[in-house]
UniProtKB/TrEMBL annotation:
This is LysR family transcriptional regulator. Residues 1-132 form the LysR substrate-binding domain. CDD domains: PBP2_LTTR_substrate (cd05466). Pfam families: LysR_substrate. It comes from Corynebacterium urealyticum. SUPFAM superfamilies: Periplasmic binding protein-like II.
Amino acid sequence: PLGSVPVRAWVPPAHPLVAECSGAATVEARRLLQERLVLPSRRSVSRGVIDSFIGSAGLSLGPHVECDDTGTLCALARAGRAVALMTELQPDRLVGFDIVAGEESIGGVPLVAAWRPGHFAGQELADLAERFRGFIAGSLL
C-alpha cells in the first residue's frame, strides 16, 4: 500500500465553520450535514467512503450537489457555494477539516501500486511507488 488519502471537508477561510471550529482540525459529521454540500457521485471511491461513514454514524445525507470534477468541487467551495467533501490533498485558498463522528474518523481512499511479477520495468515502478508514498505522506502533514 502507498497510503491513504483522507476525505476531508474543504471551505474558504471566511466560512463560518472556520470560526466555529476555532482552530480545531476536525468537524463533527452531524454539524457538517447542516451545510450545503458538494461531493463526488456514487461512481467515485471517495463517495463510497463518505456514504459508509455517514451511514455507520446513524446519519444521512440531505440535499446535496454531486460533481466528479475536482476543479469544480474546489471552485464551488472557494466561491462559498458549498462545503466540498473530497480527497484533494492541499487545494489553494481552502481550509480543510477531518470529518469525525464522536471518536470515529472518516478514513480515506487506499492507494496501491501493483504490476506483474517480472515486469521489465519492475524496479523503476518500485522506485516510483516509493517516491509517490513519500509524496503522499509529505502532503498530509
